[in-house]
Amino acid sequence: MISLNTSQLVIVDAHFDIVFERLQKSITYVLKNGCTYKKIKYTPVLDERAFLNTLNQKSVLKGLVTASPDKLALLRRYMLKRFPNIHFNTNNLNRLLYKIFVSDGYNSIDKHAFISKLEIDTCPYCNRNYVYSLSKSAKIKPELDHFYPKSIYPYFGVSFYNLIPSCQTCNGLGVKGETDPFIKKMVSPYLLKEDDYEFTFDLTKLDYLSPLDGKSSVDVKFLKQVEGNVEVFKLDSLYKLHSDHVLELIVKSKVYYNDKYREYLNNFEGLSFSDSEIDRVLIGNYTSLNELHKRPFSKLYRDIALELGLIV
Asked: Which superkingdom is the protein from (predicted)?
């Protein structure tokens, strides 16, 4: 729902530098010893051994770990063509790659440091919850989701653009889990466009300020959406539970949040507000596209406020 910035080359390169040595050691170990999973021994056969030797080169590993969001799909296609059964977790190479990139690689990452560097404040999947990360010792951090699940795509286990900070709701049991994004036609937050999602609403009752039966008089709807993401994360049903946010914006648009109030704030003695700051005061949330990650429901607020004429 919230698009993420891909121009983070310094952070991406630093991430590779952190995992590179660990990955090389793991590949060397697997080539020599294979691995064991659920008491079953897996050892690389001839073609898999050649692949792992190629993978053990720094330039090849870097290409995989730092692959751009759109290139991940191309790498998937290449792997599927070369090893047709690789995406089954009973496959020999799948288990070897899981040992290298997940058990050894991903599990060695400092998740707190990784998340902190991204400077993302809300869950990109739903924009409903904060994903603040405290110090490592505090043991409070958001989830780190593999957009392409590690059981199916273990070779993306430490790929920078495959690791998405997310809330416990979106990364919880029974939600995304091991769902394959390619099958569900989901879109990574790194590939989302600004207008892929758009909220709107319907007034279901005339007495929307105080409905007699106590039920919400506002129906929150998507005017535009990425259907795969909405289905998997159940965004349609979840946002219907937050109709009170929209109702408050409707009330503001009907009462005193008009041009005169905006002019009053703009000329407030001793304070200077930018247009985006005035918008934030008016509607109670961020509205600039590059700031939508800073507060929950910002995308909802922005779209509804635009529709109501609270902001322009």
From this structure: Bacteria
